[in-house]
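Model: Ready when you are.
Researcher: Fold this.
Model:
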Amino acid sequence: MQNVHISSLISKYNIAVPRYTSYPTVPYWEDNISQNIWINSIKSNFKKEEGISLYIHLPFCESLCTYCGCNKRITKNHAVEQPYIETLLQEWKMYLALFPGKPTIKEIHLGGGTPTFFSAENLNYLISNILKSVFLVPEAELSVEVHPNYTTFEQLKALYDVGFRRLSVGIQDFDDKVQYLINRPQSFEQTQNIFEQARKIGYTSINADIIYGLPAQSLQTIKNTIEYIKILKPERIAFYSYAHVPWKVPAQRRYTEADLPQAQEKQALYELGRDLLKEAGYIDIGLDHFSLPQDSLYIASLNGTLHRNFMGYTTQTGNLLIGLGASSISDTGGAFMQNIKEVEAYQTAIQNGEFAIFKGHLLTKEDQLVRQYILDIMCNYQTVFEKDMSQEELEDHFYELEQDQLVIYKHPHLQVTELGKMFLRNIALQIDKRYWSKQENAQMFSKAI
């Protein structure tokens, strides 16, 4: 009977909905950011004692993974490395000029693309030059995304030498047919080699990315992949739902919808993966994430310091996130800004001494309050509403979710139930005022399941 109930909920709530790494979500930004507004927002939200998170986007890849929705540039020309790094450093100097003193860094993340497209020497050069201009807190978290096919011992060692202790290893699925369809051939042996090298060097935490809902995936491929994961024993796991958005990612047209698991099948993949991970000692955290109990992500979830931003879940709280590189997103707490996506145009803007603004949003007071409520839901499974939210309106929005046993709502308190944890995006959607006022943009998002 329980399975029938869950199946009906999946059918009901499998709608296009944001992932809520920000609020407002990008399609609802008002593009009201100019050079002066952005500069003023940086200056007014800089708090030296709070520290800065730094995201650096390295967009280059040697081959195209067809499922990937990230901003990337496919090339085998490594001559692009040095000019791009010099532009990143120039952009960072522009931010340094706005800070009243030497900034404190508590987090650096290299994302992509494939950050390990860059040579060991260039990665070391980039980070070393940034670290010369900052204070690095002792508990700072420095992490990098790696593709095992394009990662060497030398690169891992070069990053370790400048303070990196965390890796995020893309895996997705170890099945040959799935890997063929998503154009990501990657053997278990290659992946295991990266884990072993990283641990030998001294990395203390490794995250593995897995995706469910990929073309040709089945319960058996998920089971086999989790068996391999148990051998690798990463400290953290991101178990993401595949977002099928071929209108945004043309490469996803390599396969058809007929190749994809449908909603009920896809949910079965997730439930099997989740149960196997829990049996292996992992604890589910927030949306899509699992960790071993000794990992700092789980500890942060227990003590209420878990945070979520454009980089996903993090143990580092704070308002100021600076994004460097093409398409990267920055967040001051009061404003969002995304850089120009096209590499050459981004480089031209920075070389001309201007921030490479593509789009942005200046948050209203209401935006900031709703943002905090959604953050509480996504990180802590609960929130307490203030007077800005109408009790009558909230009761209307949460009535069905209460009937479906996804939440317990007793104004002003909202608590997500154990069953509701499967539907966090749908729960957050209920208080997304931008979404409800502009539903014509709803299909910009992937399905919840």
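Researcher: Now this one.
Model:
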Amino acid sequence: MTSQPHPPDAPARPAGPALYREYPAVRGLQSLVSCLWENAAVRVRPQTVIPDGCVDLIWLGDHGLVVAGADTGPRQSGPTPGAVCGIRLRPGAAGVILGIPAAEIRDQLVPVEHVWHRSGRALAETMAEADTERRLAILTEAVLLRHGPPDPVVVAAARLLSAPDARVSATAAELGLSARQLNRRLLEAIGYGPKTLARVARLRRLIATTDPSLSLRALAAGYASQAHMNEEVRRLTGATPRQFLKDAALTAA
């Protein structure tokens, strides 16, 4: 934890021993950025990353600056030498910020120059000389330079599909689109289609529930049955619901 003054537009970074921390986006980016974050735990032990519908720009220690596409299943990260921090784009913001269809980097970690070319390489070089606090400020500045309004249809679709009783066909109809049109818009802005987005939303609702009964948690989260929950949780996390929920915690999305 640094005690240096915060640079302009840097997130407020509280003191404390927590290995993973999240900070709110600066004013003007809240509609596009879920949070900024740093993770010290990944230096010493592997981390399982689960799908959340988001794309992140990540300073990955000695591996430099990478773009993490939206995941459709569990991904292992670390241990990674050096500091790890990033900025998490909200579902639907990736296409605007990156300037490419988000589906092109789904389930991938790619160097930032793959997306932003020479400007991405210069950004990574600047970040290499900075500490974690300054890196978060640099990422904020980079997103501010490229920000624009997210696709309102995608934002509405993400909200509708987060409801426990959401149905893809009903969501498309409410938005005045065909299922194919909705799928295309989501692929471009988020990286995957409405069915996967609905699965991710169910998983996040499951994490948020607290009932000790798995069957009641499944019902509250919007699964058709406990068997349905078992299948989807294993697909998204690689673990059984009981194994996964033992240590699961919600992050910003």
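Researcher: Key takeaway?
Model: The chain is about 40% helix and 15% strand.
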